UniProtKB/TrEMBL annotation:
It holds the Pfam family Cu-oxidase_3. Residues 193-203 have a biased composition (Polar residues). PANTHER family: MULTI-COPPER OXIDASE (PTHR11709). The chain crosses the membrane at residues 6-27, 39-61, 73-96, 108-131, 137-159, 166-186. This is Multicopper oxidase family protein. Keywords: Membrane, Metal-binding, Oxidoreductase, Transmembrane, Transmembrane helix. Residues 193-230 are annotated as: Disordered. InterPro entries: Cu-oxidase-like_N, Cu-oxidase_2nd, Cu-oxidase_C, Cu-oxidase_fam, Cu_oxidase_Cu_BS, Cupredoxin. Residues 253-351, 380-448, 525-625 form the Plastocyanin-like domain. It comes from the Bacteria.
Amino acid sequence: MTSSQLLALELGAAVVGAGSWVGAAVLAALAPSRRSARFAVALVGVGVVALLAQAGLSGVLVSRHWAFAQERLLFALPLAALGAAIAVIFGLRPLLAAARGWPDRLSAAVPTGMTAAAIAGILGIVARSVIGYPLTLPAAAVLLALAVLTTALAAALFARRGRRQIAGLVAFSALVACTGVGYAWLTDTADPSSLTTPHQHPSNARPALASADAVSVEELRTPPDADGPVASFDLTAGTERLTLASGASVDAWAFGSVPGPELRVTEGDLVKVTLHNADIAEGVTIHWHGVDLPNGDDGVAGVTQNAVRPGDSFQYRFVAEDPGTYWYHTHQHSAEGVKRGLYGTLVVLPKSGIAEQVDLTLPVHTLGRRVLLGETDEGRTVRVEAGQSVRLRLLNTDQVPRRFRIAGTDFRVVAADARDLTAPTPVESAALRIPAGGRLDIAFTMPDTGVLVTTDASSSASLTLTAGEGAATPQVDPDAPDLDLLHYGRHAGTPAVPDGPLIESTMVLDRLPRFLSGIPREAYTVNGRVFPHIPSLDVREGDTVRLTVVNRGWETHPMHIHGHHVLVLSRNGVAATGSPLRLDTFDVQPGEVWEVLLSADNPGIWMDHCHNLDHAVEGMMMALRYEGVTSPFEQGGPHDNHPE
Ligand code: C2O
Ligand code: CU
């Protein structure tokens, strides 16, 4: 059973448990007949069984990861057990007697006991689904106080106590509840933001570096006269009304076209890109997704630069060090900007060139209601000679995972996220599931028939390679399973965990009610907090971080780390056995636990966020911060910087 299913079952058991205690309380309060007393006894039984089920399921969840069960084991279960014990001790015997027809009126203790169990169950559900992981001491204290107060209130009501006592208990409970909510509001809105203020994890508290070593992100830039042949580009961002191949027209934001022009450079080039903003009122930047460049050119508004306003420009510079497939996109109001079309592809060719004779780039992107594969929302046909070697660079620039399907040939996956794979074997029939923001390069030899490339995003946008007129179009296998890159290619006996300081860090992803800029909503959280209040992951150059990412929610989170590739160690406790997998974006599906290794070798303040950019807007965004690095830029402010 998957962890997600276990989480759902455990929650279900908690809901059934709480529901049955509520039912038992109502029946007990209504001076039961024989029949309803029997029913109440049965509900007590259900409550107890549900409690046992929760205990068992929590035990299994612990074996998957502590973060799935922490608040259950330390809080919800003991509280539910206590409530159930009170209910059974005070209520079971009188209920059994009533069920046998002894018509004594039930004492107030009976419904009070049942209510105590119901309240315990409900607050346990609140701990799971509202507070989440980690359950903090203040939150636990508030919930416990509420449990005691509301149980006392129930007792007073059932015993028909005086109005004043009841009113006092109601007021006191409300006060505690409001204090809890107010405290949450303060933590979710209080300055300073974690992006510009360092946060020291207690686990890696070390003597601070001398402040003389402090460096600003603005100093972490490539000098304009760095060595290397210069590859210069100009990109102008502006609003545009586009007519797509299908005839559909879309109001887009574009770097001249959608996608923006493909930038092709060669390893070792000094790339200079000047960004101009024609008329994007919200501002624009360029982030080089997947390029591990110096921090000052990373293009994040409010962290590494100010948003470029209409009429302004900014020059990005970096030396193209690692060959591969990348993309670029705005990182100012990025969710809106990328969806509207501010993206393009970047290819770094190795100095020695690539082996393939045909080299095509295929980003899949949803623009308005249409899906583009490359430049077109229609089918496109390209003539390729049989026997020629072909490389296809598949990119997912959408918000959700996309599956590419290749029909008509077997192929090898030669690179993932711009890092070559070791000893890739031929794949005959498999879907390539690419996380939002991710890239896969595949290679094959052109057969003398046709090759068809489709995605699950659209039935109309496709690419057909044909070796000649009349070559039959191959059939896509819609049932082909996903290729699992964790077990693809050959393991080269990688040095697993290097020597030197090892920092353990855990990111628990969830969806919880929080205050986003002061407004209550269902947010996307990391360790229970939302951007910009998620404590940064603080490192020092030379550190190695073993990062565990746990998804407690019901949605996939493609986690993207700027400025670094991480080495995948395991997923759900199963070690990666294929080619060493170095990714900048990895899909953490519901219930999954990923363990990755990050070498802190690129000083800066780096964003670390979900690349379903709508989730980033709603909180799932944080910083990886090197000690001693500062930023003069701010969120909001006169430039209205909004990296999300
Ligand atoms: Cu491609 Cu911060 O993102
Ligand atoms: Cu997400």
